[in-house]
Amino acid sequence: MFFVLCAFESKAQEKNTVTTRAVVYHGDTIPFIELPTFQYFAPRIFANGDTIPFIELPTFQYFAPRIFANNREQRRYNRLVQNVKRVYPYARLAGIKFDEYSEMLMGLETEAQRKRAARNLEREIRDEFEGELRRLTISQGHILIKLIDRETNHTSYDVLRDFRGAFTAVFWQSFGRLFGYDLKTEYDPHGEDRLIEEIVQLIEMGVI
Questions:
Q1: Does residue 12 carry a pLDDT above 70?
Q2: pLDDT: is 70 or 105 the higher one?
Q3: Dist. CA 80–CA 82, nearest whole Å
Q4: The dihedral sign for the CA sequence 116, 121, 124, 130
Q5: In sequence order, which ranges of 49-155 are alpha helices (DSSP H)?
Q6: Within its chain, how far is the Cα of 182 from the centroid?
Q7: Does the model's pTM come out above 0.85?
Q8: Is the pLDDT of residue 111 over 80?
Q9: Which one-letter DSSP state was computed for residue 69?
């Protein structure tokens, strides 16, 4: 049994031995292992008679640390961050629901069916979110209206008109103006709403 085990161990060591070549470098003997060749075929473009590999990398967003002129400016920015983080989940949900129900309504045959489905949607949203949305501040409401346009590519007025009809949209637009809301507000990520867009992207990146 002893000799059998010794023979087995010797055989195992033989099997696991890797034979490598050696090279001499500055007087030292260094093992040299030649790895298999790896080939990657990249798309090509032609420029001025030359063939150039073309690899498209994903977009990388970087925002430099913000420098504030004074404490008041920093507090205003922190308050904006808090407000955007408060309402952004509702805007995202609005975008998802808008796509779902737009597809569903397009599949319905009659106007009566679409109106009934729209009322069911309104009842569902009221039951689930009315209590939370009533606790939003006026500033948060303004930001939510902007972000709904961002997520749905439709202003809040357009969403109401599409789902509940023109009369309902006009009514809520008039009612909202009493509290300083404009349901026709459009989102401007490169202008007035540049800071909001920056904060949203930081949220999506998991930075804040």
A1: no
A2: 70
A3: 5
A4: negative
A5: 71-106, 111-134, 138-152
A6: 26
A7: no
A8: no
A9: S
